[in-house]
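quick one before i forget lol
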Amino acid sequence: MPEFTAVPQLRPATAAQPNRVAEIAAWLAAAQDSQQAKPLQRPRAIVFLSNPAIATHTTDDELTQHSPADEERWRENIFSAAQRAGAGIDFVECTSAESTSPEPGATSAAMTPAEFESFIDVGMATADREIDSGSDLLIASARGIDDATVAASLMGRITHTEPVAIVGTNTLASGITDAQWKTRVSIVRDCMFRARNLEGWEVVQTIGIPSVAALVGFIAQATARRTPVLIDGPLAATAAVLAERSAPGVKGWLRAGSTTPEPAYALALKELGIEPLLDLNLSEGFPLGALAALPLVQLAAELA
């Protein structure tokens, strides 16, 4: 099983901050080990992409919502947002030639222990590469057909939350129909049932996907190397919870980009003790929320 470097504890602010901008500046200054926050020189957004061939929680309705044209528009939007925010961006494919797609209710794991550790290593190596290249803030997010469902399944299992509660009942905010909601609840219920007698990393191996393993490694390694991280989206938030549980101290280095209508995301942030910087209520398109929040972080540093 993966072993992470101990995460340094971020020094607390010396006093309560008068407003949110000041709080961001104090957090950034602590991450920079400085008395005063300094503007970021090389923020970078990393998007971990799921392998569609092993989308273990996907419904036909979800597949039709992610056409090649949609993916092209998403990439154009992300590149535009990154450029406007003054951030670089990279996409990391999380693929596996060996994994297969177990049907809901199956007993086989989504990842073997060796595959799981290899994706952890992918995330850690990505963090090392970015930090060695001079990145002083990283954005962690993911893009995949089934990310929200995977996040709901994992957070539901590790926090013992009922499937209906972890999926939520606001179908309008989530952008899905009642029929899609019922299917999603069934999938989450089946995934949680498959992992009912498992603990620790076995849960992630059984009902997770490679991108969540990569995100855990990425977040744990970035924070171990004293680099602040903005997380964006349910899967990144779930990975942050898993990283914090394995390497206590991670959460001090984190902030979240924006709100989403996903209960799993809100539950993850509650466990981490952090609040989103913006209230955009995004249901997809991550890391748009964190990229939108990045100018606020820069402004806080400049005003400090």
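fyi Residues 113-132 form the longest helix (20 residues).
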